[in-house]
Every structure is written in C-alpha cells, then in structure tokens.
Amino acid sequence: MTSFLDNLVLAFYVASLGLHIWYLYTDSRFIGRLGTFCLAGGVVSHYFALLSRAHAMNSVPYQDFYGSLSLFAWLLAVTYLGIERFHRQRSVAPFVLPFVVAFVAISTFLAPETAAVAHTKAHGPLFALHVTITILGYAAFALSFVVSLLYLAQNRWLRDRRLGSVIWRFPALEVLERMSRSSVIVGVAALSIGMVLGFVWAHRLLGQYVTGDPKEIISLVVLLVYAIYLRLSRQTAWRGARACRLCVASFFVVIFSYTVVNFYLSSYHRFF
Amino acid sequence: MAATIPSSTHGAPAGGGPMRIVLIGANHRTAPVELRERVAFSAENARRAAQELRARGVVGEVVVVSTCNRSELYGVPGENPECADAALEDFITSFHGLPPGSLNGSLYHHHDHDAVRHLFRVASGLDSMLLGEAEILGQVRQAYMLAFENGATGPVLNRLFQSALEVGKRVRTETQIGARPMSAAFAAVKLAEQIFGRLRDHRGLILGAGAMGEQLVEHLRDRGMNSIYVANRSRERGEELARRVSGEAFAWDDLPHALELPDIVVTCAAGGQVLSRSLMERAMQSRGDRAMFVIDLGVPRNVEASVADLYNVYLYTMDNLADIVKQNRHAREKEIPRAEALISEQLEKFKVWQASARSVALLAELRDKLQHNREEFLRKHMDEMEHLTPEDRERVARLTAELLDSILELPASRLREEKELRRKLEEIEAVRHLFGLEKNQP
To answer: Less Cβ around it within 10 Å: N or C end of chain A?
Structure first.
C-alpha cells in the first residue's frame, strides 16, 4: 500500500511534468514558474519520503532495486532543478521529468509491501554520503545524456532545415551544450567525492582502501571518459555535435556499470 | 508608457440609457496606403480630435487608435446617437482637410457589439496585416492611455479598452498566434538565436550591400549584436554601408581572413557565387570549426550548396527562410479559431457588464423618480392633515421612505441576480417604459 507521502511526491512530479509541457507549448512564464514550483515541491516531499524509507531500513535506501531507483529519481530531479535554475532554462524539463515520474511510479507501485531491512554493516553517515553522492553523480550523467540527445536532435533539424513548431521553444544549441557540460562537471565532482568516501569506508570496514571490486574499476573508467569529454568539449574543433556524441557514448559506460557490473560482476555493489 | 492602466471600471454611463458604442475607421483592407497616411492621427492630433469631438457633443467618450495600418475612432455618442456616424465621418474629413466625399467607400462603421468585437480582434492581432503581430497590443494600450490621461474616456470606453487589452494578452499567451517569426529577416534572427543563444557576444559579417542584408543586420543589432563587419566589391559602397550599420569595413580581397571572425554571415551580393566550398573549408579550419550560421540572400545564390555539409555550418537560403515564413503563417492561421473563441468569451463578459451597469443606472433612476413622487405626495396631503404633530409628520415621512425601500428591494435584487442577458435587457427596457423613465418623460 502506498503512503500519502508517496502519492504526494508522484502528484507533484506529474503536475510539474504537465506544466512544463504546457510551458513548452505556450511559453507562459507563469505556467513555467508553476512547473518549477511543483518540481521543488516534489523534491522536498520526495526527500521526506526517502527519509522515512531510510528510517524503516536503518540505512540509505539502496539495498533494494526500488529504493535505489527512488533515490536515483530524487537526485535526478535535484540535479535538474539546480541546472534549470543555473541556466534559467525550463524547456528541457519535458525530456527529463518523464524519467523521474517513471522511476518514482515504479518504486511507488511495484515495490513489495515490506521493505527489505538492512542487516549488513552498511550504514552510518559516511556510508550514506558515499551512496548518495555517487548516485548524484550518475543522475548528473543521465541529465547530460538527455541534454546531449536534445542537442543532437535540434542540431539535425536545424542543419536539415526541418523546423517544427516546438523548436522555437527549445534552448539555443550553445545553451544546451553548456547545460550538458555543467551536468558532467557536477557528475565528475560527485563521483570523485563518492569514490573517495567509498575508499575510506572500505578501509574502515575491510582494512584496505582498494578491494579490486570490478565496480571500482568501472567507476574509474567512467571518471576517465567524462574527464576526456570535459577536456575535449572545451576545444573548438570538438565543440558542438562531436562533444555531444561523445557525451552520449560516455553514458553507455555508465549504463554498463549500472547493469552488467552491478548485477553480474560486483560482489557488493548491487544497486548503485 | 509610465502611466498604469486605471483600475476603476465601475459605474454606469450618465443617464442610464442604452450604451451605444460607435466605431468609424479605415484600415489596410479598406483604404490604400496614401489615404491611410492622410487620415492618420499623431498623438497630438489624437488629443485635439478627442477634445473637439467632445466639445461639439458628437461623443461623450472617445479613443483614437492610429497606427501604420489603421485609423479608428471609438466613441460613445452624445445627445444624438442617430447622427453620430455622419458627424464622425464629417469630422474626420474636415479634421484632415480632405474634400467632402473623398473617404466614400474607404471607411467602415461598426456599432455596439460589432464595434466591441472589432476592437477585440484588433487588440489580438487578428485584424492586422501581419496576422498575430505583437506591436498592435502596445499601440492600442498607448492610444487608450493617451485618451484616459486627457480625460476623454468614461466608464464605457474604460471598460471596453481594458477588456480589449485583457483579451489581447490572453490571445498572445494562450494561443500560438504570435509564436513564430513571420518575416524572412526575423526568421533568420530567430534561427541565429536558436543556434547561438544571446547574440551579444557574437560577430556578424555582411557580404554585399543589398537592402535585404542591411535590414537583416538592423534586426541583428536590435537583438544585441555589437560587432558587425562589412565587405563589398565596391570599397566605397562597403564603407558607406559600414557607416550606416556602425560596422567595420573589410576589403573584398581580405574575404578569407574576414571569414575567420564572424559567427553569422549574411550574403546579399550581386553576381552569383561568393563563398565556395573550398573557401569555407579553409575558413572553418582556421576558426577551429566554431559554428557558423550562413544566410544566403543572394539571387542567384552566393554560397555553394555543398557548404551546408561542412561540420558546424548552418546554411539557409532565401527560399529556406521563405518556407519557414510560409509554415509559420499556416501555423498562425490554424490558431484563429482558438483566438476567436477567446474573443467571444470576452465579448460575453462585456455584455454582462453592460447589462449590469444598465441595471444599476435603471434602479437609480427609478429610485429618484419614486422619491420625487413621494415628496410630491407628502407635500400635497400633509397640508390637509393639520391635526398631525411635527413628530407624526416626521414619522409618516419615514414610513413612506421605508415603504419605498421595501418596494424597490425585490426588483433591485432580481435585476442584480438575473443571468439571462437577453431577457434581462428586454426587461430593463420594459421596466424603463413601464415607469416612464424615457428621456423625454418628465
């Protein structure tokens, strides 16, 4: 059974998505502000929903798929809200918020009645920070992926001179490029901090910083590819579609890390 | 304009009779540009015309709306509403010093709700030459503010113009009527913004001295572009154009070097191809493949077609821009029914306000008349009742006043609450007749 808070979170996100789509169509500043307000409402209520879930489990909700998905959705919404405010652009929301809504809906309606209670040693503030900040990094990479796809689509339409009705509402190509880069900077910083916290945590728990888990290696690879992206995207020859293609390709490494490595290779990183 | 729109729209027109609204005007559909120029009103002329019309008693309230494409007078007729049309037409003719009859067939007249709907359509950009243009709403606002500040408006035109501004704004925000560029030059500027965002930090280059190119550069300047370079085969003409657009002239032979700087290149040179693929390849290489938006306005084309295949080059020809404008026009036309629906909704609101204002006026008249009759009655009969003390007389007076209030209470609330507009209007006229409230009645 879903709680009132879970339903409130979903209602806020759905309302925000609807309002942002409406904004994209009408360009009404009032509607846009209302959409941002609902998103902020969703983020705040989602925080309390996660907090209540964490209290029940006595840990950050990462040990089951649904908890992890909900945490990811929250951090995606938080990152998007930050990027939206920073770049003062709302037109990307209709392409990001469907993921937030879908992830929250899945974690709300498909999660088993009783949340799995963590009985491992994986708890405490340091561990909570490690999980949260690492997932924040992945959420930021996901955002840069969506923004880069939007760039590539708009770039294609502009070059082919196939301009529909909505293109005039999209952010300019240069703005999308900057948004993508900002998201990657957030992602790289968050993943780096998250990894350092993970190493410290591993040392406390196991007495060694590096355990050789495949997740550690793939996370370093993720950092490396995004660092290459950041380096190249500032060079004029790479600016534009080339950089965005690289950003999209980089995200496949993240997907690989989140799926194959988590499910089949890593021994203790199941859901993040 | 610094002044704000007045908020008080309450009150009814003096006299409480039927609130007629008359409109007389000429626009791009009814009059050629030469005639429109002759009947246009400057701000000072509009003020003077309003003053004269009110002084002559032709209208009690008046607003003059005058733009490039229309000159219109909106008024609430004075004592003789039947003569208002002819009087306004004579006034326009004489005010502009035109021979009598010279405006025959060029002027249109609308009355009451037709006039209201016309103004709503004007404010919404539906009656504009460029469908959905944004400027007209500001022009209507300006015309109204001018009239308001000069005391030429009253309750009817205040309400009418505020409703028009409201519906104009709604049409702009709730429909797509003004969403997309409708001229080739503006479409090119919007495309530039779609690629680069703010144009302030970007540079432009204009090749050739065609008028269309110059017009486009003006648009780019309006949107914040500061650095503009000009190159022309004739050095003198190039320098002249550079002066006009506050740009920097480049020698035509320096073209390969000049192409390294700008992000937006506008070509409008005579004599065919100016930018070949190889020239552009070299330019893109030396500028590190930084994005470039090339607008080819030349006929025949100035830019080799395969330039569009180069990385980070966005090439648009005049035909491409014309296609965008055509698509946008169709898209705007599709929004007309939605805009008309909003206008009809606003018209209904205006009718309700009109009816309620008339109800208030009618009640006030009725009360005045009954009060007058009561006073006459008391004066006549109190003399016959000498035995009454002053206290008794005062009591009788108070009781009759209370009786009057209780008699009027029910019709007053009925008139306020009646929602069926048409029936209400008919009833109001019937009540007016029943109680002898016509103008010529004592």
So the answer is: N
